[in-house]
Amino acid sequence: MKVLVRSVNNGTIIDCAGDVDLYSSPNLREALMKEMRSGTSSVLVNMSEVSYIDSSGIATLVEGLQLSRQTQTRFGLFGLRGNARSVLELARLHKVFALFADEQEALERISSTEPFGGL
Amino acid sequence: MRIVISSDPRLLQVLRAVVTCRAQQAGFAASDAEGLAMAVDEAASNIIRHAYGNRRDATLALEIRTYPDRIEFDLEDSGPKVQPEAVRSRALEDVRPGGLGTFFIKCLMDASSYDESFCGGNRLRLVKYLSRKAGNESPG
Fold first, then answer.
1. B130 in a structural domain
2. Shortest Cα distance from B41 to chain A (angstroms)?
3. Measured between alpha carbons, how far is residue B99 from residues A23, A30, A104, B33, B50 in Å?
4. Which one, B24, B98, B121, B132, has the greatest CB density within 10 A?
C-alpha cells in the first residue's frame, strides 16, 4: 500500500493506494493521526486506488473519525469503489462517514460538513 | 490443497490470492471469491493478533477442500485454545475501532466452527456453499 499526503487549500488529502490490511493499515493510521493533530482544517482520504480493505483498515478509519471529533477536524472519504465500498456498507458505516464521489466534490463540500455525533 | 505460512501479516496477500484463485476454480463468481478471500484474511488476521500476539515467527496452516456443492477452509494455529463462546462480533450500532473481523466472517461464510477435538492449538473451519439453484432464490 502507498500513502501520500498532500496539502490542498487549507486541508489535507491522504492518497491511499493498494491493499489496506493488517500489514499495511498501520501506515495509514500513522498518517491519519499525524494529520489530525497537525491543525489542518480538514482531512480527506482518497480511496479511489484502494483495491482491498479489511477490518483493520476499517478500524483505522473509525479511529480517524473519532480523533477528528476530538481535534475538530473535518473528515471525509472520497472515491470509494468495489471492495472498499462494499465492506463499508456491510459494516453499515457508509452513513457514519462523510462520503464524496470524487476529489472535486469532496473539496467543494467538506467545508460545509458538520461534525458527526454518536461516537 | 494445504499451505503453511509464517504469521507475518505481509503474507496475508498471498493467502488472499490463493483463496481467490481456488474459489474461482471451484465455480464461485469473482466477487464471491473475493468475499471468501476476505473471510479467510480476517480469520488469519485474528490468529496473528490474538493467538500469536502479533508474533511473526509462528506458523499457521490453511487447508482448502472443494466439493461439488461447497468449499471448505481449515485454518490451524498453535496458539492458546480459543473459547468459541468468547468469539463474538460487536453490535454494528457500537461504532468503534475493532471487533468487525468476526462479523465479516459470519456475513461472508455459510458456517464457521472450531474443531474442539483439535490438539495443540486451534482449527477453525469455514464453509461456503455454491449458490442455490435459481428456483430456490427469493424473488426480487
1. yes
2. 8
3. 17, 20, 33, 23, 12
4. B121
In a domain, A117, yes or no: no
Which of B6, B19, B38 is best to mutate for the A interface (most A CBs within 10 A)?
Answer: B38
What is the interface pTM, i.e. ipTM, of the complex?
0.87
Between the two ends of chain A, the Cα-to-Cα distance in Å is 28
Q: Which chain A residue has the Cα nearest residue B94? A: A119
To the nearest whole angstrom, how far is the Cα of A65 from the nearest Cα of chain B? 9
Closest CA of chain B from A76, distance in Å: 16
Q: Is the pTM of this model over 0.80?
A: yes
The answer to whether position B140 is within a domain reads no
Q: What is the pLDDT of residues B69-81, one digit of tens each?
A: 999 999 999 999 8
**Domain span including residue B13:** 2-135
Q: What angle do CA B85, B86, B91 make, to 5 degrees?
A: 100
Mean pLDDT, rounded, for B48-75: 96
Q: Identify all chain B residues contacting A81, using CB atoms and an 8 Å cutoff.
A: none
- At B86, phi and psi to the nearest 5? -85, -10
Q: What is the CATH number of the domain that holds B76?
A: 3.30.565.10
Q: Name every chain B residue with its beta carbon within 8 A of the beta carbon of A90.
A: 104, 107
Q: Is residue B89 situated within a structural domain?
A: yes
Residue numbers of the domain that contains A25: 2-112
